[in-house]
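Dear support,

We are seeing what looks like truncated structure output for some complexes. This example has two components. We would appreciate it if you could run it in full and send us the complete token output so we can diff it against ours.
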Amino acid sequence: MNAQPEIRGKQDDQNALIVSDITKIFHIHKQPLWRRVLRRPSTPNNNQRQPVTAVNHASFEIKRGEIFGVLGPNGSGKSTLIRVISTLLIADTGTVTVFGLDHIKHEMDVKNMISRVSVDAAFFKKLSPLENLLYGARLYGVTGREAERKAYEILGRLGLDKSTYRQPMEEMSRGMQQKVAIARAFLTSPILLLLDEPTTGLDPRSKREVRAFVEELRDSHDATILITTHDMEEADVLCDRIAIMDKGTIVALDTPEGLKSRLPTNGYKPTLEDVFMDLTGNVLVDKDTLEEPELHLN
Amino acid sequence: MTATALRHELLQSYAFVARNFNLTKRYWGWELVWLSYSTASSLAVTFIAAGASEVTGQTGIDVKHFTLYLLLGTLIWHFMSIMFTFVSEVIAWERWEGTIEYTLMAPVHRWVHLIGQTLYAVIYSFISTLIIGTIMALFFEINLADANFLSALVVLMAGSISLIGIGIFASILPLLYPERGAQMTHIIQAAFLLVSGVYYPISVLPDWLEVAARISPVTYVLDGIRAAIMDNAPLSDMGQYVMPLLILGAITLPMGVWAFGQAEHYAKRTGKLKRVG
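Here is the complete output from our reference environment:
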């Protein structure tokens, strides 16, 4: 990648990521466009837009080589925060600095340094893992031959059967698709990896494999990792520090042990889940029952 | 731009060409369906010429001339409309597949992205038009002895540039309107079909539609290619068709890329890059 040497030079900065006072407010129409158009202008609440604060003045720093977790209930703003960092959303206030570069002013350089794995594996479902990986690698300037060699290596490392490499993604299980998504992120050697619930839907063995791979990436490839998850055990095991978000606000930020020490022991050692419950005031509920408000985008 | 940077960007453009080729390969069943449908539509329209005398009861109709007129219309329209669809649906495809966020967060300049998409659009449209043209040649007696293919090719290339510019403009719609943007691009395409004289001369249109025809690049492409193929017009006569096309292209291409950038910024500000629609 042509921009890589310059970027690598900036890794000496102690902070891999600085998120400073980020706020993102969405203005959501209460009703779809057609209903707003058909209603008379005099109708009360016509065309009224409801502001929803997805991220509220979030600030934190992630040290180079750190695994930083963000926990929070559904709709707490975790994914919005990751979208802002990955340049897919423009924040209303605040700045994001990746290895010393402002992510708006130096968008292309920042994009070259980061990779993101989202909860939904975003693939061309008719294409095979290999075809998807080659496409992704070429976007980052990796040649087909090099990408193919690395793809075989990473897919094998993640335990995917060779027979699946050339079959359409739609024929693969959700867990296998997620492994390919992780392989794709690793293929471009990111130095900042954004993992948005990467192990959701994976079986325990696959979860362990992914965790091991994340740690290996940090240790062997000097990558910094920001991970969001609902798996408290995963966060406890993987993360050096954890931020807990609720209603768009970071309500706590500490090491896992530091967070747990905030609660009284009461005869047993508090878990991260206890801390989560205490700080968010929410019970962990099924995703289907607590979704973000519906956006009427048209 | 250095040679390394150029190579990097060419590789990125190629990523879209290779991806689209793989998609065509994987969706081969649908490709076959669309090719059959397009061939049948082209044949159906061109058969109108064969039946013209019988329908009107007039014997003086030059059926061969009329056949070639309609045949060129169907083939050129097929080429232009497929190309327009590919370019205008650059975002819609990503939304359907759920890959919009992945593609748009890659370190790829938007013009590099659009060049890759456009290059494949031209290659795909040309090959599919060639296949349909070959099949149609089996059904109709076509005399191309006097055709000037070089003139036709020059007009086609010039027309492609301007239509790509409009296609980029149209591709903004799925960016701004995630749920209905793709359907809106079909309305633009339908308007081109109506006003550009694909199956009839634009002189038969009402005056106000004729004005619209004069700003449609498809009109100049059709007129130019018909003149080259049916009347053996030399390259030197192509200026009247090529110049308006180049002027339109010089306006629509840079403006399209600029407008796309603005729309992308707006979508990022309002959260419309969500993978829905």
